[in-house]
Amino acid sequence: MAEGVIATDAGARRRLPGGVLAALIHLPLLRVIVRRVLLGVPLLFVISILSFALVSLTPGDAARAILGTQATEEQYLALRHTLGLDLPLYQQYWQWVTHAVTGDLGTSLFSGQTVTDAISSRLPVTLSLMFGALLVSLVVGVALGVFSAVRGGVLGRIVDGLALIGFALPNFWVGAMLIVVFAVTLRWLPPTGYVEFTDSPSGWLSSLVLPVLALALHGITALAKQTREAMLDVLASDYIRMARANGIRYRGIVFVNALKNASVRVVTMLGIQAVGLLGGTVVVENVFALPGLGGLAVSSTAQHDLPVIQGIVVYFTVLVIVINLIVDVAYTWLNPKVRTS
User: Fold this and answer.
1) Of 308, 312, 311, 316, whose CA–CA distance to 278 is shortest?
2) How do residues 233-288 score in pLDDT, each as one tens digit?
3) What pTM did the predictor assign?
4) Which residues, 6 or more positions from 194, have their beta carbon under 8 angstroms from its beta carbon?
5) Which end of the chain is more exposed for a tag (fewer CB within 10 A), N or C?
6) Which domains does the chain have, with CATH numbers?
7) Which residues are CB-neighbours of 338 under 8 A, at least 6 positions away?
């Protein structure tokens, strides 16, 4: 009740110090952040345990992959002991997690490079793909959804058709077709490879265009359909009809009132797309020969390089937690009911 008095009494609001007032205003937002972080910690441990167990139980191991088929049994057993692979599974996990909580994710069993360095050198590639695909999906998908909801008719049916196509076509097939058309036939863009931004900004952009489009197709169609449906629901509501009856410009109603209310569903869908892109990058990076986390995950899994696999799982899980946190924060700001609950 005291908070309600503070929120509604202008005089009391003026008497409060600025920092206290800001804390009261953003208290629901702070609750959301703390809750998401607290839930993320046990999630990180559970995912790490499951991935450790699943990778360890798969046929083969790193010692056999390193030595090859010509090594003797004595050499194989000696290397397993050196790498600690002959320890019980729970001891291996305990050794890993006790170092991981201090920030030490171990070293690669093959290259000897620290896992943090191996992942950090490839993380910018994956993040560039993700953010580029999210940006293209957001801009193109929301624009298509809004205009198809406003115009309707043929444009609405086109969006429905694009949604079916986008859901049906896999990323690797789209990427292969983009390479054939724009790299091999038209020769507008490079077919594979990655250029660092510091080496050449234009080369960096050119190397990302095709993989970003391959990743973004599904997001564009999903966001366009969700935006269209959300906009149609909002435009059919009573307060929108009242605003039009009061003579408010229709463009302002669409882009200020309707789009703001529809953005809650769009933000939720964007978060789902961002999490899904983590899996999509694994495929697209291999199609376009990009040195990202996807390619590292595939090679490390084939080699049973457990420390690298665990490091990638930790990074991906942290990215999922951060994405969900951003979505929750955005949802809290956009939805007044959440802020006041």
Assistant:
1) 316
2) 877 777 777 777 777 776 677 776 777 777 878 888 888 888 888 888 888 888 89
3) 0.78
4) 125, 204, 207, 208, 289, 290, 291, 292
5) N
6) 115-303 (1.10.3720.10)
7) 28, 32, 331, 332
